[in-house]
Design goal:
Number of helices: 11
CATH class of the largest domain: Alpha Beta
Helix content: 25-40%
Structural class: alpha/beta
CATH topology of the largest domain: Rossmann fold
Largest sheet: 6 strands, mixed
Low-confidence stretches: none
Shape: globular
Number of domains: 2
Mean pLDDT: 89
Strand order of the largest sheet: 6-7-8-3-9-10
Order of helices and strands: EEEHEEHEHHHEHEHEEHHHH
Distance between the termini: 30 Å
Length: 270
């Protein structure tokens, strides 16, 4: 078990409860999508995954250890959890792209040669192969490039859990597919990946989907099963992906064999 939340609740000061009794587990190598309507508490939940927020009730465990226990190394925990915010500019501050990607590595006091290798590897992983980019300010880059630099800076730390908050927002279809393909490769290497998204077509990428509504975890299951349940999703103001709505339409209009065939294609990742 990599990360576990047990009955976690959170109240913002002078505000209502943002999370209410959340319990879940994440395993190494899992591909998880977190969905829910606006205001459901998705970002608040994600911020508990590396201690940026501390629960006002319940417990968080990392590899079986309570993170609130005396002596728990929270700094080491945070180094193993990469976090990509919705707006990349919120986590960019380096004078150059090279400085940005290498910042965390320098805090680890790695040798310059190791920093250079990890920086190159991380930049290549996100598709930024132009060496001239390293000398540029990250604030002169396009939105998509900034997102890639932010991701490279996190990947250079080689996290065991990668948390992404609306990471595909503002990306075109090609860039979105490139990002999801990268997340697949990370999961294959054992990195747990959780992606919060409003785009339920993007959520099809996951093998598991968590559904959050009004601060409660109201759904947790295989992606295909959750995303095909149009009635369940509609209860929380969510619309199933068009591909799954087609399956539902065919089944309801006397074409069960065709609905089954389409459903099998979707299950195979088509």
């Amino acid at each position: 078990m990599l990360l576990e939340l047990v009955d976690v609740s959170y109240h913002y000061p002078l505000g209502p409860a943002a999370l209410k009794g959340i319990s879940l587990r994440l395993q190494a190598g899992e591909r998880v999508a977190l969905i829910g309507p606006n205001g459901a508490g998705k970002t608040t939940l994600l911020l508990h995954f590396n201690g940026l927020l501390t629960p006002t009730g319940g417990h968080v465990f990392w590899e079986g250890q309570a993170v609130a226990a005396p002596g728990f190394d929270r700094a080491a925990w945070r180094r193993q959890v990469g976090f990509i915010f919705q707006s990349p500019c919120h986590q960019l501050f380096g004078e150059t792209v090279a400085a940005e990607v290498a910042f965390g590595l320098r805090q680890l006091k790695l040798a310059p040669a190791e920093i250079a290798v990890r920086t190159r590897e991380a930049m290549a992983a996100v598709g930024l192969v132009d060496a001239a980019l390293l000398a540029r300010s990250p604030f002169t880059l396009s939105y998509g490039e900034q997102r890639r630099v932010a991701l490279a800076a996190v990947l250079a730390m080689r996290p065991r859990l990668l948390v992404l908050d609306e990471a595909t927002a503002g990306l075109d279809a090609r860039a979105t597919q490139d990002l999801l393909a990268l997340l697949d490769r990370l999961a294959e290497r054992g990195t747990a990946v959780i992606l919060a998204t409003h785009d339920l077509e993007v959520a099809r990428w996951a093998e598991r989907v968590l559904v959050l509504a009004e601060g409660r975890l109201v759904g947790d299951g295989r992606a295909q099963e959750v995303l095909q349940d149009t009635e369940f999703l509609a209860r929380f103001g969510l619309e199933a992906p068009a591909s799954y709505r087609l399956v539902h339409y065919l089944a309801e209009h006397g074409r069960p064999e065709l609905a089954h065939a389409v459903s099998r294609l979707l299950a195979n990742g088509t």
